[in-house]
Design brief:
By secondary structure, this protein is of the alpha/beta class. The chain has eleven helices and twelve strands. It starts with a helix and ends with a helix.
Length: about 325
């Protein structure tokens, strides 16, 4: 049997196993399976993602009462309240979190089964979702990843996310992402980390800050009180910088928190403040600026590990494995 056919059989067995698990949930008190419209699961996901039944009804192009009935039917099947409604919208209960995670997995496997059936005997096809953490080397790979995936596997629909406001490991556990390049090495229950490379941090500043253009690293102590532009406190880059300044007992003066690399580059180029970033982002800021900028390594060394993160519960689909291979190839080039 060809390798691709074996993978289809494997995927179908995984799908059957998942659906069997789902059918156990969709049963009455006597254990008799109850047919469940897969659209109810999709509607539930849209309600959660949009944060409102009203907005979800608009997105799904159905009447709000009908959507509320679908939600009530889901809650009746599971025997638990899944959402709490308030004036601010909806929030998930513990049971809602569990159903949301399984719904994401089931729907993605259904989509993959359809794609595999359509592409049987031909090329890889299906949707693959990848998170690339901002303010890292990962953020520089998005275009290359798109180009290589399109070139090698035109049947794969690649979904890329670069978000500073969401936790990628949580999105993988919830089934919203299949893999992500992110900072950190874990451990986090539910996901597996594969360290890829270590990113060194560089200071980038306008020449007006009177920092010499030198090949030697600049001391953190020498940056005492210098106005800095950095991401918010929850960002891994910011945490690494905060730790370095705390350990050297240096005053960290953050004058603005910026989550957009292009804005950060323009602000640094305008002399509004300096920044400390991983090398890939520091190089991008320097290359995009028309102003003379200083870029120097920081000492003591500040660094973060960039890791590939995947679920340790759900195996990657054949298309996702292909995208993973491309991603690893691209990150390997960053080490050169």
């Amino acid at each position: 049997m060809p390798a691709f056919s074996r993978s289809l059989v494997s995927d179908r067995l995984a799908l059957q196993k998942q659906c069997a698990s789902a059918n156990m949930a969709f049963a009455d008190q006597n254990g008799t399976p109850i047919p469940m419209d897969i659209r109810r699961l999709k509607s539930f996901i849209v309600i959660v993602d949009s944060g409102s039944i009203t907005r979800a009804a608009d997105l799904l192009h159905i009447a709000q009462p009908a959507l509320s009935q679908q939600l009530a039917a889901l809650e009746e099947h599971f025997g638990h309240k899944l959402l709490i409604r308030s004036q601010q919208g909806v929030s998930m209960t513990d049971a809602g979190h569990a159903v949301y995670r399984h719904a994401q997995i089931i729907l993605r496997q259904m989509e993959q089964a359809q794609a595999d059936a359509s592409a049987a005997g031909n090329s890889l096809a299906g949707r693959v979702s990848v998170g690339l953490v901002p303010f890292s080397s990962a953020a520089t790979l998005s275009v290359d990843l798109l180009a290589e995936t399109r070139k090698r596997h035109p049947g794969i629909l690649l979904h890329l996310t670069e978000s500073v406001g969401q936790t990628y490991s949580q999105m993988i556990m919830n089934g919203r992402l299949e893999m992500a390049l992110l900072h950190g090495t874990g451990p986090i229950k539910g996901v597996r980390f594969e360290p890829i490379l270590s990113e060194e941090f560089f200071l980038v500043a306008h020449r007006d800050f009177a920092i010499e253009a030198d090949a030697k690293p600049v001391s953190v102590n020498a940056l005492d009180g210098i106005p800095l532009l950095l991401p918010p406190a929850y960002n891994f880059v910011r945490r690494a910088v905060d730790t370095a300044f705390t350990r050297t007992r240096t005053n960290l003066k953050v004058v603005a928190e910026v989550e957009i690399v292009r804005t950060l580059a323009r602000a640094v180029g305008s002399g509004l403040g300096a920044t400390i970033m991983p090398k890939a982002i520091a190089d991008r800021i320097v290359s995009e600026s028309s102003e003379p900028l200083i870029c120097r390594l920081v000492s003591p060394r500040i660094e973060e590990t960039l890791s590939l993160c995947v679920s340790d519960q759900n195996p990657l689909s054949e298309p996702a494995l292909a995208v993973r291979d491309i991603l690893l190839e691209l990150t390997a080039r960053l080490k050169d």
